[in-house]
Amino acid sequence: MYKVAATILEKAELDAPVRASHGNSAAMAFTFYLNINGVKPKTRAIDVMTFDESCEIMDMKAYSFKYNN
Fold it and tell me: Which pairs with CB-CB distance under 8 Å and at least 24 residues apart come from 21-24?
């Protein structure tokens, strides 16, 4: 999925500062601007990541909805 996304992604912008917890998780909201054969849709998403003790990403979930434009 990420290899395909990299070929159509024009830019990504953070919509707000990254939010971290006192535990081992963080979330970020952002907008993707795409270019799919000349059609330029955008999509908004929220990613939630969980980190281990070395700050390596252990889990990532992406939340998006097709009407979040």
Answer: 24/50, 24/51, 24/52
